[in-house]
Amino acid sequence: MPRVNAAVRCCVSVLLLTALAAAQSAEQRTSLSLERVRKQPQLLLAFVHDLPKGGDLHNHLDGAIYAEDLIDFAADGSLCVDRTSSRLLAPPCDSCEIYTAKPAARCGYGDHVLYNEMIDAWSMRNWRPGDESGHDHFFASFEKFGLASHTHVAEAIAAATNRAGMDHLQYVEFMHTADAGAAAQLAGKVEWTSDYAKMRDALLSAGIKDAAAETSKRLAADDARAREILKCGTAEAAPGCNVDVRYLYQVLRGLQHQIVFAQILLGFELASSDPRFVGLNLVMPEDWYVPLHDFNEHMAMIDYLHSVYPKVHIALHAGELAMGLVPPEDLTFHIRASIERGHAERIGHGVSVMNEKDPIALLREMAERNVLVEICLTSNDIILGVSGDDHPLPVYMKYGVPVALATDDEGVSRSDMTQEYLRAVETYHLSYADLKRMARQSLEHSFLPGQSLWTDTKLVFRMAPACAGDAANPEKPSATCTEFLAANERAREQWKLESELAKFEKKN
Fold first, then answer.
1. Strands, E, within 296-450: which ranges?
2. Using CA atoms, how far apart are residues 231 and 220, in angstroms rounded to an integer?
3. Are 356 and 323 spatial neighbours (Cβ–Cβ below 8 Å)?
4. Residue of 48, 47, 19, 132 whose CA lies nearest to 85
5. By CB neighbour count within 10 A (0-12 exposed, 13-18 middle, 19+ buried), where does 2 fall?
6. SS3 of 20, please?
7. Which string of DSSP letters, residue by residue, matches 336-379?
8. 471, 497 Cβ separation under 8 angstroms
C-alpha cells in the first residue's frame, strides 16, 4: 500500500508541475530559461545572442568598423601604410615584393605580420597595459585608419548595419560627422564672436543651409549605396536590411570654438530639415584639453541654439571620466550641466556620476526628467579602467534612471551588442526582466518621431490604449492599433520589438 501512495504522490507532483508550467507566462518561462543557463557560459551566450535587443543609441560609425574591413577599404583606395606606426598614408606606395617602410595596405594580404600589425594598431586586439594606456591606444587608432573610413562611408554603413542585424538589433543611431569638413570651412570665412546670435547670422549668410543640403544629398547617396551592398530588396538580402538606421550629427568638440559652433549649428539645421538626422551629439575625449577647457562654452552654445531650434533632439557625452584622469573638480559637474544647460535628453557613459556634486539629488533629477544613460560597459573598461562594482550601472538602476546598453565603438573595442548584454548579465546578475526593460528603453528613448507605444515606463511598461488589447498577440494588431502604428514611427518600431520578444519567449 505505501508503494501505491508513493506512486500516486509522484503522479500528483508531475501533474502539479505540469499545471504550474502551463500557468506560467511566456516571460516567466523565459526568465527560468535564463536562470538555467546563467552558470553555463556557452549556453548563456546563445541565449543572449538570440535575445531581441531593440536599438543601439550610442554607436560611432567610424569606430564601429572592424579593422579587417578597414584594411579592405584601404586596399580598395590604393592607400599605403607606415610600417612603423601603422598609420595610413596617401599613395604612391612601395612595392609588396620587398620589405619597405611604406607598403601598400593590400600588401597585408600576403604579409601576415603587416596584416596583424594593422589590426592591433587599429583596435584593442592584443593590447596589454604597459607604456601606452588603454585610453591612449583606443583614441590613437582613429587617426591611423581615418583615411580608409572617411573615403568608404557607404561601405562602413553597410558593414556596421549588417553586424547590428546579425546581433538581433533592429534600430541604430549612428554618430556621423557627415559634412566632409564643410562646417569647418565656413567657420574659417567668418569672424569669431561670442555673440552667438551674430555668429549664427554670419554662418547662415556664409551658406550653412547649403552645406546642410549638400550633406543630406551625400548621405542619401551613401545610404542608397549601402543598401545595394547589402542586396536589400533581393532574395539574397543581408540581415542589415532589416535594421532601421538614423543619424546623429557628430560635433568634434576638440576643435577651435568657431568650428565647434559651426558644427553644432549645422547639426541643428540638419536635424530640422532631414529626417535621417534625428539629433546631434558632441564627441572626442572629454578629458582632452579643449573639451575640458571649453566645456562651459560648449554648453552655452547649445543652450542658445536650443532656444532657436527647440524641437531638435540632443544627446551628449558626459561623465566619460574617472578619478586620476582629470583634476577632481572636473568630475563634479559635467553630467548635471549637460542636462540642465545642454538640454541633453540622453547621456552617453555617465561613469563619473557619483563624483558629481550631490550625486543622489542628480540621480533623482535624472529619473524625474526621464534622462536615459547610454551604458557602454566594454568601452568604459578598456578606456577608463572602470568595471564591475566600480561602474555606476547598478546605482542608476537603483534610483530608477532609465538605462540602455550600447556598443560605443564596437570595431575598435572588438565587441558587439551581444557581448555588452553578456557582460551585463554576468557582472550584475541581471534578470530577463532587466534585459527586456533595457531593450524597450532603447527604443523608448530613441529620437524617432511620433508617439510612444507606452504611456508609462517608470515602474511597469503600460501600453497605449490604442494597442493595449493587442499586447497578447502582437502578430495581428487590431484595426485601431494598426492605425495608431501607421501614424507613429516610434511606436511602430516598438511594436516590432514586442513581436520579436514574443517569438523569442515562445522558443524559450
1. 313-318, 346-349, 372-375, 403-405
2. 17
3. no
4. 132
5. exposed
6. helix
7. HHHHHTS--SEEEE-TTGGGSSSHHHHHHHHHHHT-EEEE-HHH
8. no
Q: Which is nearest to 265 in space by CA: 344, 206, 346, 224? A: 206
Q: Which residues pair with 349 in a beta bridge?
A: 318
- Nine-digit cell string for 266: 549645422
SS3 78: coil
The yes-or-no verdict on residue 21 having pLDDT over 60 is: no
Q: In this structure, how many other beta carbons lie within 10 angstroms of the beta carbon of residue 361?
A: 11
Q: For residue 420, which of 366, 479, 377 has the smallest C-alpha distance? A: 377
Nearest-angstrom CA–CA distance, 263 and 97: 45
At residue 5, the pLDDT reads 56
CA distances from 436 to 234, 416, 432 (A): 32, 18, 6
Q: Nearest 5°: CA angle at 136, between 102 and 122?
A: 40
* Count of CB atoms situated within 10 Å of the CB of 391: 19
CA of 115: how far to CAs of 92, 145, 288, 461, in Å?
19, 13, 31, 49
Domain coordinates in residue numbering, the chain: 55-61+151-448, 62-150
User: Terminus-to-terminus CA distance in the chain, angstroms?
Assistant: 40
- Fold classification of 55-61+151-448 is TIM Barrel (3.20.20)
Enumerate residues 6+ apart whose C-beta is below 8 A from 103. 80, 81, 83, 93, 94, 95, 96, 111, 114
State what percent of residues in the chain have pLDDT above 70. Answer: 95
Residue 14 exposed, middle or buried by CB count within 10 Å (0-12, 13-18, 19+): exposed
* Residue 465 preceded by cis peptide, ω within 30: no
* pLDDT of 18 above 80: no
What's the pTM? Answer: 0.94
Are the beta carbons of 404 and 372 closer than 8 angstroms? yes
